[in-house]
Amino acid sequence: MVSESIQPPVRLGTRVAYRNPWLSVREDTLVLADGSTGIYGVVEKADYALIIPEENGGFHLVEQFRHAVGRRSWEFPMGGWAVGKSGDPEQLARQELLEETGLTAGQWRCLTGRLHGSTGFCSQGFAVWHATELTPGPPDRELTEADMVHAFVTEDEFRRMIADGEIFDAPTIAAYGLLRMVG
């Protein structure tokens, strides 16, 4: 349910405050609901695919160091296209699963069109893919993923890891909830 009577702020102008090959930061000048003006920063980053590889009552996870939070993070495999590349969303999901875990899947199901992880400041979205009928193989990781660890955990262990704060990645937790909600 969306309230149509509340009007969004009016954008008076925009400028790119920062850009690198992976993201840009846009600064918008807005007229707010009370008539005052202000600025709003938006991180613009390409969408990505998140994959839930499920088999035998559990999930395949990857763990890697996440610089932004200063610690290692257990997550479902996920990632975006290399700079300058693009393609079909399912192709991206297949590529990321193979790259990070070495797994290929015989069955793919997209659980949702597009979710957003940080709606307050980032335009990036992601699609959640459920991968089953898994076949192992060697991973083909990028240089930035050299520290990545791949592990299989039972669903009970996965739930315990969430409850104990070992899994703290919000897209991973949301994807799991979505999987159990849609069946």
UniProtKB/TrEMBL annotation:
Gene Ontology MF annotations: hydrolase activity
Ranges of residues in domain Nudix hydrolase: 9-175
UniProt keyword terms in alphabetical order: Hydrolase
PROSITE patterns (alphabetical): NUDIX
Keyword set includes Iron: no
Superkingdom, taxonomy of origin: Bacteria
Protein name stated in the entry: NUDIX hydrolase
